[in-house]
Amino acid sequence: MRLRYTLKGIEATNVLGNCLSTVLGPGNIFLLSGDLGAGKTSLTKAIASGLGVEEKEVTSPSFAIIHEHLNGRLPLIHVDLYRLGPLADITEIGLEDYFDGKNVVIIEWAEYLKDPLVETALKIDLSFFDEQSREVCLTGKTGIWRERLLLLDDCMKASKV
Ligand SMILES: Nc1ncnc2c1ncn2[C@@H]1O[C@H](COP(=O)(O)OP(=O)(O)OP(=O)(O)O)[C@@H](O)[C@H]1O
Ligand SMILES: [Mg+2]
Question: Residue 82 Cα, ligand 2 centroid: separation in angstroms?
């Protein structure tokens, strides 16, 4: 199943993150991709805030590629592969250990992954629409995402985004 939205302003990105935080569950993996500055970190912050993680803590992992946020409703692992560049190897960076069915794992620059990750991940592609807005496409292949994406769409409609 696939959903698309135009996100008019950062407020709309925040609404999407908040809605995602209400439908996600333990073990969910999010693969974020899109242009420089398309809003991947902003969306991650909004998801984190919805999970009750202190928002100021969430920054693009710069030296550490992986940041753990353990003080929210679910453990959140934030990964940014930008500095690794193409062909990033999840085993080499020790990412596999986090796929334990409990952590929520958000990966920025997921297009840099050497091997396409688990089929059960939700792909989130962000792109520039114009300076004031972004487009987002969310694709979940497996059955678990159908139900969740329907709930997400209800949440987005209720928020009038
Ligand atoms: N829907 C939106 N409309 C307009 N501006 C937005 C929207 N979402 C985010 N932004 C703005 O875009 C800028 C870049 O956002 P952000 O750092 O989240 O992008 P990024 O994809 O993580 O970038 P990078 O590729 O460098 O990691 C920020 O100033 C943010 O406020
Ligand atoms: Mg970023």
Answer: 8
